[in-house]
Amino acid sequence: MLLHEDRLFPADAATRAVARRLYEAVQHLPIVSPHGHTDPRWYAEDRPFPDPARLFVVPDHYIFRMLYSQSIPLEELGIPRKDGGPVETDGRRIWQRFAANYHLFRGTPTRLWLDHAFQTLFGLTRRLSADTADLYYDTIADALTKPEYRPRALFERFNIEVIATTESPLDDLRWHRMIRESGWGGRVVTAYRPDPVVDPEFGGFRDNVARLGELTGEDTASWSGYLAAHRKRREYFKTFGCTSTDHGHPSARTADLPAPAAEALFQRVLKGHPSSEDAELFRAQMLTEMARMSLEDGLVLQIHPGSFRNHNPLLYERFGRDMGADIPTPTDYVRALKPLLDRFGNERGLTIVLFTLDETSYSRELAPLAGHYPALRLGPAWWFYDSPEGMRRFRELTTETAGFYNTVGFNDDTRAFPSIPARHDVARRVDCAYLAELVTSHRLDEDEAHEVARDLAYGLAKRAYKL
Amino acid sequence: MLLHEDRLFPADAATRAVARRLYEAVQHLPIVSPHGHTDPRWYAEDRPFPDPARLFVVPDHYIFRMLYSQSIPLEELGIPRKDGGPVETDGRRIWQRFAANYHLFRGTPTRLWLDHAFQTLFGLTRRLSADTADLYYDTIADALTKPEYRPRALFERFNIEVIATTESPLDDLRWHRMIRESGWGGRVVTAYRPDPVVDPEFGGFRDNVARLGELTGEDTASWSGYLAAHRKRREYFKTFGCTSTDHGHPSARTADLPAPAAEALFQRVLKGHPSSEDAELFRAQMLTEMARMSLEDGLVLQIHPGSFRNHNPLLYERFGRDMGADIPTPTDYVRALKPLLDRFGNERGLTIVLFTLDETSYSRELAPLAGHYPALRLGPAWWFYDSPEGMRRFRELTTETAGFYNTVGFNDDTRAFPSIPARHDVARRVDCAYLAELVTSHRLDEDEAHEVARDLAYGLAKRAYKL
Amino acid sequence: MLLHEDRLFPADAATRAVARRLYEAVQHLPIVSPHGHTDPRWYAEDRPFPDPARLFVVPDHYIFRMLYSQSIPLEELGIPRKDGGPVETDGRRIWQRFAANYHLFRGTPTRLWLDHAFQTLFGLTRRLSADTADLYYDTIADALTKPEYRPRALFERFNIEVIATTESPLDDLRWHRMIRESGWGGRVVTAYRPDPVVDPEFGGFRDNVARLGELTGEDTASWSGYLAAHRKRREYFKTFGCTSTDHGHPSARTADLPAPAAEALFQRVLKGHPSSEDAELFRAQMLTEMARMSLEDGLVLQIHPGSFRNHNPLLYERFGRDMGADIPTPTDYVRALKPLLDRFGNERGLTIVLFTLDETSYSRELAPLAGHYPALRLGPAWWFYDSPEGMRRFRELTTETAGFYNTVGFNDDTRAFPSIPARHDVARRVDCAYLAELVTSHRLDEDEAHEVARDLAYGLAKRAYKL
C-alpha cells in the first residue's frame, strides 16, 4: 500500500490515539475550497482528462521544477515552448522520465499528494518507479476513459461542497455561465483577481484597462470611471457566486493617497512605462481601494505578497510564466499594511486574509497583527509551506498569539485537480496531530480539540469566506 | 480539574518521567522576578483588589486585544476612554462577555495563566464559559473581599523572594518608600526606566527633562548637567533596591559620539521637534551613556528593542498607550550594537541583557553575540514569545551556541499580578521538558540537568540581576 | 561512559528502533570530507600533536569564545598575542581552566564532539571537570607520545577516504607535495580559496595580486592577465586533487558586468583604498568569473556568505582573526545571486554549493532556488548550525521544497582534527533520526530511508564534489 492509515500522526502512541480520534471525526467532512486555480472549463464541458502525463506532470510546476533542478530539460517533459519549438509529445515517455526520478520527491508534499491520488483514485499500491512506470501509465490511462473519471464525477467523488476558481476582471465567465446553465448541482464559484488591470507592470496593462472600460461601459481612462468599472465588474462576478478578491503583489505595500494624488498617479501609470516606484505605489493604492469596495459589497480581500516572479529569464523567455521559478523574498507587513489598516483596520464588516511566503513574519508580524485588528485574518500555510512541516510551523508560530479563530482554515490553492482531496487530507491530519499534542500536553481538553478540528477542517473556511 | 499535573511535559513516557523529576526539584523554589510591571502601590496600601473583571480583564492587554480582534469593542470591556466617554462599568457584564468568548484563547498562554490562577487561587475546577461565568464571578468576587487575597498576602502565598517594579526617573518612589516604612518584609525593588527623559519622541520629553533637573538640582539644559542628573537619580533608585535599568527603544541602535557631538545632539533634541534621525541617534547615544554609568554604579542594563508602538492610531487616540497594538518588527543587533560593544563589550564588570521580539535573531545574532562578548547576556523569550512554544524555540535556537550560562533565567514582565506564579510555573515546566529531551537523547546527564534546571528557575536570575 | 549508543535518536521507542537500524547501516561508512581546514603539514610531517591544551583548547574558537564570553581572558587560555605579550604557556594550567568550566558547554555541540574524542580516542569515561582535569591531561598527554596518535595514524583510524584542506592561490602547496612524494596512501586534496586575491578589503590585497602574477608569470596588473593567472593557478591546484573553490564573502552579491566595466573596476580596486561599494562589486563580479572558470575546468563553486568578520576590534587588534567574533547577519540570496544565475544558473555542467548563516533563508530562499536551478545545490547546516538542532532544522526547512538530492551531504568544515569523526557521527545520527521520523509518520518507506541515509552520509558528498 502507498498510504498508511496513521500517516502524519505523532509517533507517541497516546498522542497518536488522540490524533486518530480527532481525525476520524473530520476526515469525511465536505471540502470547502475557497481559494483555488482549477479550470472552470473542466466542470463546464466535463470532458475526459487527457493522458496521465498531461494530467499529473505537464501542468504541475511542483513536479517539473524538481525534475528541472536535477537537469532534466523541460522540453523532455512536454512543457510547451512559446516559440512552438519541438518538445516531447509522447505521454508515456514523459511519464517514464518522471517515474524513473520519483525518488527525487522523497520527503516532499508532492510525494504525499501523488501517492494519495494513485492509490485512492486508481487503486495503485506498488510504489512508482522505472519498474512500475508502464503499469501506472496503463492503469491511469485506462481509468481516464471511464465516465467516473470525468471532472464532474471526480468533483462529486471528492466531496467538494464548493470550490472557487480565479478569474481576471476581463474574463467573460463563460465557463461559469455554462456550468450554471447545465443544471449540474456542483457549486463552482469565481474569485475576482484583478492583477492584469491593477498592476501597471502586468503585460498589456494599458490595453487591459481599456478592455475593462469596454466590458463595463465606463470611461476607464478616468480615475472615477476606472473605479466604477471595478465596482461593476465585482457585482458581475458576485452573480457567479464570487465572495472574494485575490491579490498577488510583489510586496504587501498599501497606500491611502488623497483622491487628487491617486488620480494623478493613475494618469501617470496609464501613460505606460511607469517608474517602478509609481507601479508599486499604484498597486499599493489599489489594495486600499479594493478594501473600500469590499466594505461596500462584502467581498473578502485576500493579499498574498512576496513572490519574486519569473526569477529565471531564460525559462521565462522560452516557456513563459509559472515555470517554478517564483522565489519568495523577505516581506514586511507592519509598515506596509499601515496605510490600509489606519483607514480600515478597525472595520468589523471587512475581512482581509493575509498570506505569506516569509515564515519569519508568522510570529513576529502576522500573528500580532491578526491578534489585534478586527479586519485581519491569517490565511493558511501557503505554497512552499503547504506541507506537513510547513503547516505544523504555521500553527506553532501563530496559535499562541492569534489563536485559532483569527485563521481561516485550509486553502488548497491548486490547479492540480487530483491533488485536492490529498491536500485537504494532509491539512486535516497535520492539524489533528497538532491538536493532539496540545491535548496530550494538557494545554487543551479533548472535547475542545474536537470543536477546533471541525472548525479548521470546515467551519472557518465556510464562515470567513461567507460560503 | 483545569490543571493536569503533567501539563507541558513531553508526551514520551520516559522523557516525561525525567521532566517530572526535574520539575519536582524546582517547582517550589521561590520566585525571583527581576523585570516586572506590577504597581508598587498595591504592596504599599495593601487594599483589596476590585472585582474579577478589573482584576483579570480590564488591565490585561493580552486578553482584551484578543477579544477586540474578534470585533468586541473595547468600550464593552470597560477600557476607559481618554475623552471620558461611556464604557461598560458593570464588572459582571464585562466578565460575562469575556467568559462567553473564552474559546478564543484555546492554544494560547493566556489560557494557561488564567486556568492556573482560577484553580490555584480560587479553587475553580470547571472550565470558564458562558455557563460558568456567574459561578466564576461570584467565587472570585467573594474571595477578593478576604484578607488572604490582599496584595501582600498573595505576594507571600506566591513565594516571591523579590520582585522589581519599573519606574520613571521622574517618579518620587513614594510607594516604595511607604512599603519600606511599613515594616512589611516583602522585598519589592524598583528599576530605572528612563524612556520619558531619554526618548525625544516620548510625550512631554522637554518638560520631563526640565522636571528631572528640578528633582536633582542639576542644570538639565546642559549635557553635563543632564548626565549628572541621571547619575544622581540612579543613585536614588539604588537606595530603593534598584539593580537594573530598562530601555524599550524602537531599535537596538547604539552610538558612541565624541562628547561635543553628543552635546550638540542633546541641544538639538532639547529644542523640540527633532528629526526622526536625531531622535533615533539620541536614544542610541543614551544607551552607551547608560552603559558607561552602569560600569560605574553596577546597574544591569536591559535592552528590549523592536516594538512598533501604538500601531493603531484610532485606538491610540481613543484609549491611549498599551492597547495591544504594539507590533514587533525585524530587529538588527549585529550592526546596531557595535558602537556600544566596541566601547564596552569586553568589560567584565558590565552586564547587558538583550531581549528580542524578532525570533530570527536568536540563532543568527543574539546567541553568537552572547556566546562571545563578556558583557552580554540573553534575556528570556519575551512578550509574544512568553509561551510554551516560544520558550522552547528560545532554548532550541540559543543553547547550542550560547549555552545556558549566557542566559539570565525567566522574567515575567507582567502587570497581571495573579498570573505571576502561573508564568514562572510555565517557564519551569518548559525548561524541564527541554532538559528532559536533552537527557533522553543523551546530550546531557540527569545530574547536570538538575543543576541547570535550578539555575534556570532561580539561580541565573538572582546572579545576573545581583538580587 | 560519556557516550550512549542511542544518543541523538528520537525518544519514541518505535522511531528510535528505526533510527538505530538506519544508523547501523551507515555508521561505519568512510568519511568524505570535501570542505575542511585541517593543516596539510600535519599529514606531511606526521609529527606528534603537542599537549592536550594545544590539541583541544588553543586552536578551537568554539571552545575559547565560550570561555571568553564568561569573562576568562584569552591570555589565560594561551591564545598568542600579536604583540608577543605574555600569555599562559603551561598546558596543564590552560587545561585546568577549561576543565573547571566544562559545564558552560552543556547543551552545545562542542560538548558532544569533545566527549566523543575523549572516549573513543583516549578511553576516558568519567566526565571532564575540575576533579578529573589532571586525569584527562595525563591520559591524553601520554597517548599523544604514541605512534598511533600521530596524524596519519589517526587519519586512518578515522576511516577518512578523502579530506580537502583549503589553500590560498599564493600557497605553494609544499605540504601537499610532500604528502604525495611520501608515498603515504592517505588522500588529502586541496581546495582553491582565493579571498586574499579576490577581496579588495583583504589585508595586503595589492601585494597578493602582484604575488599571484609572479607565481604564474602573468601580468596581474591587467584584468586579462589577472584572470589568466587564476586559470593557471586553478589548474595547478587540480594537480593536487583540487575539485572545488571556496568563497567566504560578506554577502552573496554577484555581478555580471560587461568586460570593459569589469576591467575598469579591477583597475580601481587595484589602486588601493577602493570604496566599499567598489570592493563589494569586485567580489560580486569575481563570483561570476569563478563560475565561468568552473564551467571550463569543472571545479565546484562554494559560496558561504553572511559573516560579519572580526566584530570585536579590541580582540582583533590584540589577537588577530578567527577569535570567535565572526557574527552572522541577514543574508539575501534571491536578488544577490540573480546576475550569476541569469548567466549560468541553467548550466547542467556547473555545481554551485550555497551555505548560509541565516536560517531564515532555508525555506524562504535557498530551498526554492535549489529546487529550481540545475546549477544550485545546498550545502549542509554550517558553523553556528553545525549542531543537532541546527541540522534537524536544516532538513525540516529544506527537504519539503528541495528534496534530499539538491543537498550535498555533510561538511565538517573544521580545523579541529580530533572532532572530525564526532562531527560526522553527529550528522549521521541526526539525519537517521530525521529519516526515522519520516518513516514512523509514514512519509517515507524504510527501504527508501536506507538509500537516503547512505547518500546523506557518503554518496552525495562524493558525487557533488566529484571525489
Task: Describe the 3D structure.
Chain A is mostly helical and 467 residues long. Helices cover 50% and strands 6% of the residues of chain A. The first copy, chain A, has 20 helices and nine strands. Chain A has helices at 13-26, 40-45, 52-57, 61-69, 91-100, 109-122, 133-144, 151-157, 174-182, 195-198, 205-216, 223-238, 259-270, 276-297, 313-319, 338-344, 361-370, 388-402, 420-440, 446-464; strands at 31-33, 160-164, 188-189, 244-247, 300-303, 307-308, 327-328, 352-354, 376-378. In chain A, helix 9 links the parallel strand 2 (160-164) and strand 3 (188-189). The longest helix of chain A is centred in the middle third of the chain and has 22 residues, at 276-297. Chain A is globular and about 65 Å long. The two termini of chain A are 36 Å apart.
Summarize the model shown.
Three copies of one chain form a homotrimer. Chain A is mainly alpha-helical and 467 residues long.
Question: SSE layout and pairings?
Answer:
The structure is a homotrimer of 467-residue chains.
Chain A: H1 13-26, E1 31-33, H2 40-45, H3 52-57, H4 61-69, H5 91-100, H6 109-122, H7 133-144, H8 151-157, E2 160-164, H9 174-182, E3 188-189, H10 195-198, H11 205-216, H12 223-238, E4 244-247, H13 259-270, H14 276-297, E5 300-303, E6 307-308, H15 313-319, E7 327-328, H16 338-344, E8 352-354, H17 361-370, E9 376-378, H18 388-402, H19 420-440, H20 446-464
Parallel strand pairs in A: 1-2, 2-3, 4-5, 5-8, 8-9
Antiparallel strand pairs in A: 6-7
